[in-house]
Write a structure and sequence with these properties.
With about 290 residues, the protein is of the alpha+beta class. It has helices at about 5-15, 25-40, 60-70, 75-90, 200-205, 205-210, 215-220, 260-270, 280; strands at about 45, 95-105, 105, 110-120, 120-125, 140, 145-150, 155-160, 170-180, 185-190, 220-225, 235-240, 245-250, 250-255.
Length: about 290
């Protein structure tokens, strides 16, 4: 769906990128839209912990209310679905697709959503829902493309078969990252070059939202990008469990270690501008993810 003018204005105001600041070049504008989105809207799993129902909808009006009106974040399907609606409202041509995430020694099932945007006959990966390991900027779908990530890390995109494929004539897009120069490249995510429909995401959303072994179900997490003066990603502030840290420029600094729920709620407001209601705060009581001090 596309947004009304009032919704569009509210969205752009929320990410601190009003139309007066938009460059005329569509690729430059897309880069800045993605950067401002990443810097204002956190990648987070809070609704699977701080909630009386712990269910996530991909309905766009509901996502707009949660993320824009109530200043929250979400995980990949929530964030990329909402961002896709923003881009369509601004006249971009795109479709959404899906992929798998690399977990230590195996690929997950289809559980990640990305957007593919076409500008002047060139297609770009645009992903605002992969947290601190994400691509951070529009990446042209060109085999072997390398690009900066959060310094000193780099990313790479390859159109390739996977060792796990039974038919090696298949090709997928493989996204890898390198922690620093001369470090080994590590698989992060792969995605398909085919359009997914809303019904596909409704199915894909069930496992990460409900399975006890899901990383999102097991962990309270949040991640938000820091921008430099040129509005390029320069660092990230993240929360995992009770630990809040800042990474970037080769540094990794622990900002706070939360021992209690009161401390974590305060940290969410201080570092991510997220204010939880009393009902939301009570939602975590009795869960394994609750901090008991």
């Amino acid at each position: 769906m596309s947004f009304s003018q009032a919704q569009l204005d509210a969205y752009l105001t929320h990410i601190n990128f009003p139309p007066l600041l938009h460059p005329s070049d569509p690729l430059s504008r897309l880069r800045l839209l993605q950067a401002h989105h990443l810097a204002r809207i956190p990648f987070e799993s809070l609704s699977l912990h701080y909630s009386p129902h712990r269910l996530l909808t991909l309905d766009i009006p509901s996502l707009f209310s949660k993320i824009i009106t109530h200043s929250r974040g979400g995980y990949c399907m929530e964030l990329n679905a909402l961002f896709a609606s923003l881009l369509r409202s601004l006249g971009y041509t795109l479709f959404s697709s899906g992929g798998r995430v690399w977990e230590q020694d195996h690929w997950t099932g289809l559980s990640h959503m990305i957007n593919i945007v076409t500008i002047n006959n060139t297609r770009y990966l645009v992903d605002v829902g992969f947290g601190s390991g994400g691509s951070m900027q529009p990446i042209p779908l060109i085999h072997g493309t390398e690009f900066p990530q959060i310094p000193p890390a780099r990313g790479k995109l390859e159109h390739t078969a996977l060792p796990e494929h039974a038919d090696h004539s298949q090709r997928v897009w493989l996204y890898s990252t390198q922690a620093e120069e001369n470090a080994p490249w590590e698989r992060r995510m792969m995605f398909l070059d085919v359009e997914f429909f809303p019904a596909d995401y409704a199915v894909m959303n069930l496992s990460p939202m409900t399975q006890p072994q899901s990383f999102f179900v097991q962990n309270v997490l949040a991640s938000q990008v820091l921008l430099d003066e040129e509005k390029r990603p320069s660092g990230v502030v993240s929360m995992l469990g009770g630990t809040v840290r800042r990474k970037g420029g080769g540094e990794d600094v622990v900002l706070v270690e939360c021992k209690t729920e009161e401390e974590r709620v305060e940290a969410l407001e201080k570092y991510f501008d997220i204010v939880l209601s009393e009902a939301e705060r009570n939602g975590i009581k009795g869960l394994p993810s609750e901090l008991k001090g």
